[in-house]
Structures are given as C-alpha cells and as structure tokens.
Amino acid sequence: EDQVTQSPEALRLQEGESSSLNCSYTVSGLRGLFWYRQDPGKGPEFLFTLYSAGEEKEKERLKATLTKKESFLHITAPKPEDSATYLCAVQGGYKLTFGTGTQLKVEL
Amino acid sequence: EAGVAQSPRYKIIEKRQSVAFWCNPISGHATLYWYQQILGQGPKLLIQFQNNGVVDDSQLPKDRFSAERLKGVDSTLKIQPAKLEDSAVYLCASSFGGTSEDTQYFGPGTRLTVL
C-alpha cells in the first residue's frame, strides 16, 4: 500500500525566512509525485508534478525536488500570501495517495 | 477556462438522513474523481470514473455511498443513510485522460456536517 508522510505538520516563518517542507513516500512503481496548495475552504490547487529522481521544478518562490524516497518543497523568501496547507501526493497505478499536509503560516 | 464546479458548498443534516452532491468537471475531461477529506487529513479517493465507467471504487463504503456519472459528464455522490463519521469535505476532481501523467484539478468542495 502506498504511503506518504509529510513533515513538519505545521511551520511558522517570518516573511523572508526560507525553509523546506518534506514529503517521504513508499510506493510500488512511482508514476508521479504531486504538490498541491490548499487554502482554507478551498479545494487543492495544483503546483507541480515530478516524475523521476533528480527532477526539479520551480514556480515563483517555490522549488520542488525529488529523490527516490522523498521530495522537498523549498520556499525562498516567503510572503504572507504563501500561507496555506501544502499537500504531497504520490501516484502508483491510477490512484493518488495524499499525505496529511504541512500547514504553513508566514508572518510579517 | 471554467474550473470544476460543485454544489452545494455547505450542507448540514441529521444522522440517518440522505444527502446528494453534484459535480460538473472541466469541459473535455474524461476522468472524474470523488474524494473525502476529513479535517486535518489529506483527501482520500472514494471513486474514479473514466467517461461513464467506474475505474476504482475500492474505498467507497458501498452500503451507504453511491455515485453515478450519466452521459460521461456530470456526476452525483449520494450518502444514505448518513453517519456522524461522514462529516467531511467532499471534493470532486477531473483530469483530461486519467493516465499517470494527467493532472487532477479540484473543485471547491462540499462541506458536510452530520449532527
């Protein structure tokens, strides 16, 4: 059974204080690793898909990386608007298996 | 491009009552998913449709949950009778083809409270 563990559960940063979120996974035959952002009261919003170890993708202040066992979401110089829950999911076969998310709060 | 639409956005019912949720996927998307997201957890897949057919419903509690996708477009998810533990956000998502390379796009969800 596919499993995803995200850490930390919650993270509080000052504006401009860079950090990383971790997603550890076990899956039989990784077809894709997905990062989503979820704001309160809204559905998950797609950020990135990574397919193979060594792959990296960037979008504004976010950078996602992938190894054979984990993925990192690096946040550089975050702003208050980056506050959200960040979800990681893996796909083995048809199904996406999600982690429980990291709740990020960026303060002024 | 319009996103995934869901209604209602909120629903409060008593236990043992029935409830139905509606989803309209992104135009042209063949695959539709229903997820359950309990507070503090990640979404859990309930059922996946490819056009009209069911691809995966292994985690759908079939004694009380049912779903259909008529004409390969809109879908409804029904709970009858509801239990307290069904309180959650029900998310609908769609993707173009349903293969591993396809991104799933989510709707805003329906927040269900069972009293």
What do you see in this structure?
The complex is a heterodimer of chains A (108) and B (115). The termini of chain A are far apart. In chain A, the strands form two sheets. In chain A, strands 2, 4, 5, 9, 10 and 11 form a six-stranded mixed sheet that branches. In chain A, strands 1-3-8-7-6 form a five-stranded antiparallel sheet, with no helix packed on it. With 108 residues, chain A is an all-beta fold. Chain A has a single domain (3-107), classed as Immunoglobulin-like (Sandwich). Chain A has strands spanning 3-7, 10-14, 19-26, 32-38, 45-50, 56-59, 62-66, 70-75, 84-92, 95-98, 102-107. The radius of gyration of chain A is 13 Å and the shape is globular. Chain B has a single domain (5-114), classed as Immunoglobulin-like, CATH 2.60.40. In chain B, 0% of the residues lie in helices and 48% in strands. Chain B is built from no helices and eleven strands. Chain B has strands at 5-7, 10-13, 19-24, 31-37, 44-50, 53-56, 65-68, 75-79, 88-95, 105-106, 110-114. In chain B, a hairpin with a 6-residue loop joins strand 4 (31-37) and strand 5. The radius of gyration of chain B is 13 Å and the shape is globular. Chain B starts with a strand and ends with a strand. The mean pLDDT of chain B is 93. The chains are: A mainly beta (108), B mainly beta (115). At the A-B interface, strand 4, strand 5, strand 9 and strand 10 of A face strand 5 and strand 10 of B.
